[in-house]
Design brief:
133 residues; 2 strands; mainly alpha; Arc Repressor Mutant, subunit A; globular
Length: 133
């Protein structure tokens, strides 16, 4: 379900959808199994406007070096899980459920990136102290 579809739901339908979403992704101790390619795709398609497939492909090629078949293989299960939607023109958009999945992983992902940067800086400082270029 995309954002427009969600917005057209009645208050009761929205509540039912959000309860279903909560059961899927907010169960105690349960986080959806998401890889970096999926997070990248959710992030790239997560804006206010659906993203054309050629722009998605270009971004995913630049970020991850994948080919069109690999992108299709990543998209299919995400569409089935209702994390990603594709409109009539083939443009991609992260669904409200996909946004929930992305939000759940942002904090741990940010911490991992910061740890990686910090480790890299520490290694560079150690090399400089040892007189290494």
């Amino acid at each position: 379900m995309d954002k427009d579809e969600f917005d057209r739901l009645s208050p009761e339908e929205r509540k039912a959808h959000l309860e279903r979403v909560e059961r899927i992704i907010m169960a105690p101790g349960h986080w959806p199994d998401v890889n970096s390619l999926q997070l990248g795709l959710l992030l790239r398609a997560g804006g206010d406007v659906p993203v054309p497939p050629d722009e998605i492909m270009l971004s995913m090629q630049n970020w991850f070096g994948i080919n069109p078949q690999e992108l299709a293989d990543i998209c299919k299960p995400m569409i089935e899980k209702e994390w990603l939607s594709v409109d009539a023109e083939g443009a991609f958009h992260t669904t409200p459920l996909g946004r929930e999945v992305l939000d759940m992983h942002k904090s741990p992902l940010t911490k991992a990136v910061m740890w990686s940067i910090r480790s890299g800086l520490t290694n560079m400082e150690e090399k400089n102290e040892d007189g290494d270029p």
